[in-house]
Amino acid sequence: MAGVNGGAADEGVAVDRVGKTYGGTDSGETAVRALDDVSFAVDRGEFVCLVGPSGCGKTTLFRIIAGLIEATDGTVRLGGTPVTGPTTDMGVVFQEYHLFPWLTVEENVGFGLDRTDRPEADRAARVTAMLELVGLSEFRDAYPKSLSGGMKQRVAIARALAVDPALLLMDEPFGAVDAQTREMLQRELLDVWRSTGKTVLFVTHDVAEAVTLADRIVVMAADPGRVREVVDVDVDRPRERDDPAFGEHVARVRDLIGAGE
Amino acid sequence: MATDTGGRFDETGGDVSGATGLRADLGLGDTRRLRRGAGGVVGFVVVWQLVSLTTSPIVLPSPAAVAEAFAAELASGTMTAALFSSVRHWIPGTVVGTGLGVGAGVAFGWSRVLDDVTAPLVRALRPVPPLALIGFAIAWFGLNHAGAAFIIAVGAFWINFYAAYGAVEGVSEDLLDVGRTLGVRGDLDMIRSVVLPASLPGITTGIRTGLGRCWMLVVAAEIFGVPGIGREILRASNNLLVDTSIAYILVLSLMYLVVDVAFRAAQRRVLAWQA
Predict the structure, then answer these.
(1) Is B201 within a domain?
(2) Domain-embedded: residue B29
(3) Whole-number mean pLDDT of chain A?
(4) pLDDT tens by residue, B162-209
(5) CB pairs below 8 Å between A and B: how many?
(6) Most exposed residue of A102, A209, A248, B120, measured as fewest CB within 10 angstroms of its CB?
(7) Single pTM value for the model
(8) Which of A173, A250, A233, A244 is nearest to A204 (CA)?
């Protein structure tokens, strides 16, 4: 698989002492510390999940890593380069899909490619490959409105992967679909991860989902949002929910989350 | 790139045909609705006829009298000439007003700075009715098509300005975020790639409203002497030729109907992704 775009050899993502304060002296309101001293790293090719109770700043951290908002302190580095704004080295997938409703499936997937200097033939081949990857080849001319939630999220994943980013960054991507579709999408995401070798950072509040997917789980605590512990998931893949080791990991992470409340 | 699962086609999609014929585009798809509409028109004409029997033709001429007047005006060529004259200021007024209104609405809706700078001016100018500007129209352009087009353009401008402004303001912040993460850089790229297409439904609704409003303004704009349908309506009224007056009002309605139906068909084409 071609394509991690430059950067230090083994560094995927490094979150280094990141903090975020909302409000404060300028606005006259009380400052709210949303994140405090958050540090962890994701190695290249690794699948890491970020879990935590609501209000632990998961989404704030996601937006900082994506370069959509600025951290108050600390830095995020992608392949050794500090993230100072949105970058196409990251494929970002949001919970609510956010497909462009006026574009067909194919055009949505090609949106990022249109902004690169790839030759047209290369671009078309890339779109076709991405649609195959997520199993939506026959829907390439459909508009998002006619797709189910699960299909929309597949399109969003294909769109994020199309520009061949070093990192796939996902914020509760399967939070809006039903349980059955969610399990299918989880399996598919693992397939995509295996076949592309991408680094994945996946935010979720669902502990079982994190244990199903991740090599390691970053468990966060709230008030202020911080890293409580990083848990290695030593369960053989493919992971089955009735595997005792699976249950132990779920219990352990739940305990860690509960301990903060 | 390897794909190794078989179970990816399990989920069945919704209707992806999305094909819309010309009949649907023109709003002719629903025959029951059409029949009811036709019934409404017939009922209206019947009531009109009955009421007209009880009054003098100066108060309310009969439908037949109006039809006669219509035919007479058409035969004499007066009606066609008036229509062409109106169109000669309706088209430039509508096009210029719509273009400027949409342009300004998008720019001010998008740029916080532009919005802040212009907000007081916009609030001061907004309540001025186009008709109040007739003096300026005459002074700046004269008693001609350009002067009438100016009045029409002012009306079209505000409708389109607010429609576009609101549509752009309503564009989801999330879509902008997605655009940024996919490499959209700079205001122009963002407006072209995300903001305009996302606000197109609101913008086209504004244009459609404006097209109708501009026909109304044709009458107003012709008050001061520019020839056209509005001028004929006023002249007939002043001479107590109520039937002729109504005939010209009908021309105005028909023009509005034609333009509105055509625009709606185009709108459905352009916004096929919404259906």
Answers:
(1) yes
(2) no
(3) 90
(4) 999 999 999 999 999 999 999 999 999 999 999 999 999 999 999 999
(5) 113
(6) B120
(7) 0.84
(8) A173
Count the domains in chain A: 1
Among candidates A91, A132, A184 on the partner chain, residue whose Cβ is nearest the Cβ of B3 = A132
Residue A235 belongs to domain with CATH number = 3.40.50.300
- State which residues form the domain around A33: 1-82+199-261
Q: Is B173 on the interface with A (CB under 8 A)?
A: no
Q: Which residue of B has its CA nearest to A139?
A: B16
Return the pLDDT at A130: 94
**Residue A98 located in a structural domain:** no
Please check whether residue B16 touches A, CB under 8 A.
yes
Q: How many residues belong to chain B?
A: 275
Pick the residue with more confidence: A117 or A65? A65
Residue A216 lies in a domain: yes
pLDDT digits (tens, 9 = 90+) for A51-107: 998 889 999 999 999 999 999 999 999 999 999 999 999 999 998 999 999 999 999
- A242 domain residue, yes or no: yes
Domain of residue B180 covers 63-274
The answer to the question of residue B110 being in a domain is: yes
Number of domains in chain B: 1
Q: Residue B98: inside a domain, yes or no?
A: yes
Domain with residue B174: its CATH number is 1.10.3720.10
